[in-house]
Amino acid sequence: MSIYNTFSCLGCKAFVAGVLCCVVSAFAQTAITSISTTTLTGTPEAVKSEGGIVFDNTVIRMDAFSTGTQTYAVTRLADTVNVLRNESSPNQSSVWYRTKTSGSEPIGVHYDNYGALLISNNLASGSENTFANEGSTMEIGNIERLDFIFSSPLAASSNIGFAVFDLGDANDHDQFKIAAITELSGSTVTSYGKLIGPESTWGSKNLSIGKITSFDYRLFRYGKGDDISASTENTEVGKQGLAGLMYTMADLGIPEGTKVFGYSLFGYDVTSSGKELLDIANYPTTTDPKTGGGGIDLLAVNGIAFTLIPEPSTYALCGMGTMAAFAAWWRRRQRCKSVRA
Fold first, then answer.
1. How many other C-beta atoms lie within 10 A of the C-beta of residue 185?
2. What is the C-alpha separation between 53 and 121, in angstroms, rounded?
3. With a threshold of 0.85, does the pTM exceed it?
4. Nearest-angstrom CA–CA distance, 109 and 41
5. 8 A C-beta contact, residue 228 and residue 222
6. pLDDT higher than 80, residue 335
7. Lowest-pLDDT range, 62-76, 266-280, 317-331?
8. What is the C-alpha to C-alpha distance for residues 23 and 242, in angstroms, rounded to an integer?
9. How far is the C-alpha of 116 from the C-alpha of 14, rounded, in Å?
10. H/E element holding 337?
11. How far apart are CA 164 and CA 174, in angstroms?
12. End-to-end distance of the chain based on CA atoms, in angstroms?
């Protein structure tokens, strides 16, 4: 059990039977204003399949984020990711790895599988031009949808949300669509909540990791779909920052208590609904990679459910409720003992 489950008393759940904690109101799509991380230092390793490039194997783990008024912590991690691709675009993937300086070797962990990298909870890497289908041959691919799936469902609550993070410049982050998964058949999505996404470019102010608001990265291109063990090109570099948006269950149109099996991300130009949304054959295959358009550069912190952390006053309220419940139980117990006597 995650330590973050200790915060599940929020949102009118009973902390003890008959005792309700505070009610938390629903939020609209909300900008993330700060993040909390833990850096785990690994042992550098030369990756043979990448021509001996040394990866430091550092993990910058996402622990929590704030929206300025509320704080949310990691509570669940996806068990499975489906990478759905079309058959008409190049079967490629692009990945970025953070570097110490421009053109230097990556500080992150090298992954052989694209899906595994996406859900690795590491801010030192991510995907480049995730849903882009057209443009220069090197920078595009055939990815149409990403499904982040929990093996056991979440019970929708106003205290639970998902977050999407993009690598880019302030005021110039890329578009996408998101929908909660409400039904599964095996690992196949069979039903969604509503499909939504930011209406325009977003992220007016980039977040900081420590005191760093922008960092160097190096791009790795791959030509075998989800196989990202050996790159075809890895010399392009850049420097950008990150921004994030969070979506509550209410934002995603999911009623309280509904079973939610995760969420999917789509290109910004997907407009299908109902059963048509389930079939990627209905999605455009002309998604552009332009900055601010369809070339979202996801950070590798996908497939995470975040839960609201109570404020200190909430702890006190819940504690008072628990004491009251215990006192009531004790009085009932004493009365029952007296009757039996």
1. 8
2. 22
3. no
4. 10
5. yes
6. no
7. 317-331
8. 32
9. 36
10. helix 312-340
11. 11
12. 42
